[in-house]
Amino acid sequence: MTSSTTDHRAGAPDGPEPLAPLRALVLTPTGTLGGSETWLLDLLRTSRARLRPEVWMLEDGPLRAALESDGVPVTVLPTGPRARDLALRNLDLGRRLRDSDAEVLLANGVKAAAAVVPAARAVGVPVVWAKHDFSWDRELAPRLGRMSDAVLATSASVAAATRRDDATIVPPPRPPAPAPRAEAAAYWAEQGVASGDGPVLGVLGRLVGYKGVDTAIEALADDAARAWRLVVVGPDDPTEPGERTRLEALAHRLGVADRVQLTGPVPDAGRHLAAFDAVAVLTRGDGERFGREGYSLVALEALGAGVPLVGATGNPEVERMARAAGRVVPARDPRAVARALADLEDPQAREACGRAGRAVLADHPDATACAERVVQVLAHVARRPGAGLAGPPMSVLTCFRDEAGHVDEVVGAVVAQLGPDDEYLLLDDCSTDSTGAELAAWAARDDRIRLLEGPGVNLSVARNTGFARARHPRVACTDAGCAPGPQWLTGLRAAFAEPDPVDLVVGVYDVDCGDPVRDAARVALFPSIEEARRPGALTRLAGRVSGRSFSARRLDGRSMACSVPAWEAAGGFDARLRSSEDAVFGDAVLATGARSALALDARVTWAQTGDLADMARMYAKYGEWGGRAGSWQLVSRDLVRASAYAVGPLLLATGGARTRAAVLAGAAGYLALPALRARDVDVVPGTWVRVPVVIALKDVAKATGCLRGLLGRAAGDAGG
C-alpha cells in the first residue's frame, strides 16, 4: 500500500451491518398451548434477531400470556368455527392487512389459512401456510396450497394434500434436554400424581375423542396390562366439552378408575416424561376431517427422555419413531396396546427402546435449525432474503466505458457500503475520456478498490473479466449510470447468509424522473418496487402479460449478485451479446439447477433517457439482442406485441361490434395498470397523455428489433 492510500480499516467495525429484520404477522387459530402453538413459540423465541413479529389470534387462551411475556404484540379476534364465521373474518382481515405494515403473513394451521389466505392474496401480502396435520385435507388443502405463496409442513405426508412439490418440510424441533427420572418423579408428585406400584403409561394431549385416550383406558382392562397405571395430561377442548366425563365413566365401567388419573393441563409436562415407563400416541382419524398426528411433539419428547413410545398406525412420523424406539399398534385396538405394554414391563426392553430413541433424536434438527428453515422461507416469500443477517465478504464489480463525470455517483455510493473485508473492482473497458483517471483517483484513496483493464469488446466480456479476477466467491454488480441505494449491497450480501443460500440474487431498480416523458416511462414501462412488495391481482396479471414485474427468474444487470461457481457453471455471460446479456445469463444460471431470490432491499436508481428517439433505439437494441440470443422468455412477449399491433388495427377496421369491443377492452386492460399508477404516483403535469405514446414506442421498437435479431440469428449472424 502506497503512502497516499488511506487504510480504511483503522477504527472500522468488525463487519457489515445486518439487514433490517422482517416484519412478520402471524395468524394463529387457538389460544391453547398444543403442538402447533408450542411450535410457534419456539419459532418466535429462536428468531428474535430476524423477525419483528405481531400475532393475531382467532381465540383467546394461555398462548396470549406466553406471547405477551415474550414482548410480542397480540390482538385477539374471536372467530367461530362455522364457514360463515371464517368468511366474515376473511373480509375483516383483508381490511386489517391492507392497513398493516406486515411484509409477510404466516398462517399457523388450517383454520388460520382458511380465514386469511384469500384475503392476503387479494390484498397482495405474501402468505406462508404452516400445515401441521391432516385436517380438512380433501376439502381445503389443495385450494389453500394453491393460493399460498409457500407451504411449510411438518412432514412430507402432511404436505402431500397441498399438491405443492415445493413445500418446505420443517419438523418440530428437537426438544430441550429432559429432566432426569428422579427430578421428573418429584415434579409429578408436586402435580398430584402419586407414585405407586407398577409401571406408568403417559398420554399427553387435548381431551378430544380422536386422541385415543379411550383406547388406552380399555387396554388397562385387558389382563396383559393389569400391572400398568395411566396418567392422562391435557386440557379440555371446547369443541368436545363432555369428553372428560365420558372418559371417567368409561374407566369406572371397566373397573380401572383406580389406575387412571386425568390431571388436566400441566405446565412443562413434556420435559418431565422420564418419570413414566412408556408414552402412548394413539391418535386416530375421526372419520370426518380431523385426527392423525402430523408430527407429534410428545413422541419427540418421549424419545428424548429415553421412554418407549407406543404409537398408533395412521400417524406416519409416530409410526417411524415407535418402530425404532417402542411398539407400533393398530389404531382403536386396545388388545394390541395391552400386548405392547406387556412387552414393555421388562426393564431391559424399556432400556433398549430408550437407547434407540436417543439415537434417533441425535440426528433430529434443533430449534435453531428449524427456525432458520422457517425464517428463510418467510424472507424469500417477502422478497427480503437474509433479513436480519449480515452476510459474507463480497467482491463488487462495476464496468465503465467513457463515463467521465458519472464515476463519483456510483463509486461513492458503493464505497460507503463496503465492509472491511470487501473488495471493489473498477473495470475501465478501454475508455477514451477521463474515466480511467477518475477511477484511479478512487483507488488511490481506498485499499479495498482494485483497478482492472477491460478488453473493450462488450459488457459481457467485461463482466466475465471481473468475475474471473474476483477474490471472493460471490460477486455483486451494478452499472455505471446507476445510483445504489444505501442498503443496496447489504440487501445482496445478506441473501448469501441464509442457512441454505441461493446462487443468484436479483436486485431491483427504480428510474429517475422529473419531466413528462420520463415520468410516463416510469409508470408505464418499468416495474414498481412498491408493487413488488404487495403484488395484488391486477399487478400479477399485468406482470404476466407485459413483463412489467420484478421476478427472481428475470435477472437485470443493474442490480445483481452471483456466486462464482454458478457463473462458471453457466459458462459466464454470453460474449456474443451486446445487449440482453444479463437476462440470458440469468436463464443460463437457472438452467444448471441453481436457485435465485429476489431482493427488494438491493435497490438502485437508474438514469433513464428522456428523449423519445433514444428510448426507441434502446428498446430496439434490447429486442434485437434478445432475438439474437434466441431466449424464448425475451422473444415470446415481443412477438405477441408485434402480432397485437399488426392485427389490432385490422380488427378495428374490419371486425363487427363485438370484435371491436374486444379489441378496445384488451387495449384498455393493457393500459389499466399504468393508468392507475399515473393516478396514484406523484408525476409532473402532462404525464398521462404521454403514457400511451411511450408504451407504443417501446412495444413497436422492441418487436422491430426482435424481428431483426431473429433474422440475424437465422442467417448465422449471432455475433452481430
UniProtKB/TrEMBL annotation:
SUPFAM superfamilies: Nucleotide-diphospho-sugar transferases, UDP-Glycosyltransferase/glycogen phosphorylase. Pfam families: Glyco_trans_1_4, Glyco_transf_4, Glycos_transf_2. Residues 1-11 have a biased composition (Basic and acidic residues). It comes from the Bacteria. It is an enzyme of class 2 (transferase). Residues 34-164 form the Glycosyltransferase subfamily 4-like N-terminal domain. GO terms for molecular function: glycosyltransferase activity. Keywords: Glycosyltransferase, Transferase. CDD domains: GT4_PimA-like. Its EC number is 2.4.-.-. Coiled coil: none annotated. The keyword Ribosomal protein does not apply. This is Glycosyltransferase.
